[in-house]
Structure formats: C-alpha cells, structure tokens
Amino acid sequence: MKRHFINIILRAILLGMAAVTMLLSPSCKSNELKDQILVLTQQRVLMANERDSLFRLLEARQVEYDTLTASYNALSESNRELLQRIRNLQAGYSARGAQIKKAESEKVELNGIIAAQARKNDSLVSEISDREDRIAVLNQVIESKKAENSDLAEVIRKKDSRIEADSLKEVARLRQPKENGFVNIFGFSGGFGLGARVPEYNARVIGFDNIFGYQVDRHFLGGVGIGLRAYNGGLGIPLFLGFRYSPVPRSTGLNPFIAADGGLEFFPESMKNTSIFIQPALGLQKALGPKTSLKISVGSLTVGKMPNSNKSRATFLTVKGAVSFSGKNGPLFRQ
C-alpha cells in the first residue's frame, strides 16, 4: 500500500514539473499550451479522483491497520500468556527434571537394594531347598514312625483288648461272692458200729467237732479240727485235719462235696491207747445266707485201735450235720 501511494505522489510531481517546463518554454505555441493545460486539467481531475480513491483506500487500509493492530495486540497478549505458560512449563520441566534425577538416584538405590534382596533371596532359596530336603528326610522318618506307631497301635490295641478282657474277668470275679478266707465248721454226728461188736466202744458213737479251716477257692477247703465223741464205752477226743472238696460248685441250690478227716483220737480213760482214725464222707451243702451254710454228709469212721478188751479196730457208719460260718473277711456262700 505504501509503494502505491509513493508512485502516485511521484507521478503528480512529474506532471507538475512537466507543466512548469512547458510554461517556461518560449517556443510553445498558445494552442499547444491550451491543449497541454487541458490535458493537465484532465490529469488533475484524474489525480483528484485518484486522490479521493487513495484517501478511501487509506481509510480502508487504516481500518485494516487498526484491525491488524488490535489483532497484533491480542496476539501480543496471547504471546505473553504463551511465554508465561512456557516459563511455567520450563519451571515445571526443571522441577520435573529434578524429580527425575531424584527418581533416578532412588532408582539406583532401589536397584542396589533389589540386588541385595535378590542375593538374599538366592541364599533363602538355597536354604529353603536345604530345608525341603530335610523336610523330605523328616517325612520319610515320620512315615517310618507312623508305620511303627501303627504296629505299636496294633500291639496296644491287642493289649487293651487283653486288659479289657482281663478287667471284665476281674469285674466278673469281683462281682462273684468271695471264694477264699477263714471258715469255722461246727458239726454234730452220730453212727452205729459195723462188723463184730464188743460191749465197749464199738456199738455206737455220738459226737461233735469244730474245724478251723481256710477256703482256698471254690473247690477246696482245709483246716484243723478238734471235737468230742461219746462211745458206748467211754469218751474220745479227736484232733485231726479236715478237708472238703466240691467237684462241681454251683451258683445256687445243693452243692455236692467230699469230706476227708483224719488224725489222732485220745481216750481220757486210757491215754496209752491213743489211736489214729479216718473219716471219709459224701455230702450236700446248701447256703443259708451270705456267711452261713448247712452241710449234711454220710460216711464212715474208722478207729485203728479202740480201748476195749480186744484192742481191735472199729468202724462206724455215720451221719453228720454241720453248719459253716465264714469270718468277716471270709468267703461268701452261694445261696
């Protein structure tokens, strides 16, 4: 736009100089001068029109310039804002760079820690492997111990079963009446003689005795006895051992037994005629209570030498009844 304006001004100056030159030249004719003036006038009009056009163009250009100035100012403001943002970004970049450097240093430090941790992990892996090997060995030992425990458990189970069976037997035994202990047997007997009879000591006998015995078990009893017998010829004092045997003891009812007594018999009227005797018998017994029982037996009494005129042996068929009493800690009779 400025170059166009300058060209117009130069053209006006050149036309003015040409007009002055013509006016000052003497050789110019008046007609030519008029023509030239007319031409100049036309050119002046044209120049005026061009000037008006130029002014309008300048006004338009001024508006454009003002618009461009406003745009430039706006762009300058935007530029300043952008510069501020750039500075802020540069500051943030610098801070970010510091953070990155710090992060890199921390990264290096962490890498060192990780490397140390990796070495430690390697040692831990090695130790874990060793522990796993030891655990495998221990598992094998445990399995062997489990097998041993299984065998021991089987042995213990068998022993427990045996103990249980023995305990049950013991409980059953304890529930049964007591079978051993001291027993006192008081008996009364009588009989008549067998075979040849002489007037003295051989016809009949009546007596009583007492046995201080001990019940060994359900079958066997033994003890020491003493008594008094009255023969038709005098008295006799037996001192003997007494035995009782029950072959098939029953829980209730009558129980058979075998009796065997034997020992010395003293005759007070003639002590020099002391003799031996035996008295076997078969009988039945019945419990009268927990501590008492009744015994009835039939047997024989044989005395080796009687104090009669013949000094002969005498045999009697006897019937005997007796009552047994067990002591506080003695056996309990089955009723």
Task: Report the order of strands and helices.
Answer: HHEEEEEEEE
Structural class: alpha+beta
Helix content: 40-55%
| Distance between the first and last residues' Cα | 157 Å
Profile the largest sheet: 8 strands, antiparallel, barrel
In what order do the strands lie side by side in the largest sheet? 1-2-3-4-5-6-7-8
What name is given to the CATH topology of the largest domain? Porin
* Domain count: 2
Mean pLDDT, as a whole number? 83
Q: Counting H and I runs of at least 4 residues, what is the number of helices?
A: 2
Look at the structure and give the CATH class of the largest domain: Mainly Beta
Query: Based on CA inertia axes, which overall geometry fits?
Result: rod-shaped
Query: Got a strand count?
Result: 8
Rg over CA atoms: 79 Å
> Which oligomeric state applies?
single chain
Poorly predicted runs of 5 or more residues: none
Strand content: 25-35%
Task: Set out the fold topology.
Blueprint: H1 2-24, H2 30-175, E1 181-194, E2 204-215, E3 220-231, E4 235-245, E5 255-266, E6 275-287, E7 292-303, E8 314-326
Antiparallel strand pairs: 1-2, 1-8, 2-3, 3-4, 4-5, 5-6, 6-7, 7-8
Give an account of the 3D structure:
- It is a single chain.
- The protein is an alpha+beta fold.
- 50% of the residues lie in helices and 30% in strands.
- It is built from 2 helices and 8 strands, in the order ααββββββββ.
- The protein has helices at 2-24, 30-175; strands at 181-194, 204-215, 220-231, 235-245, 255-266, 275-287, 292-303, 314-326.
- The protein has an 8-stranded antiparallel barrel.
- The protein starts with a helix and ends in a 9-residue tail after the last strand.
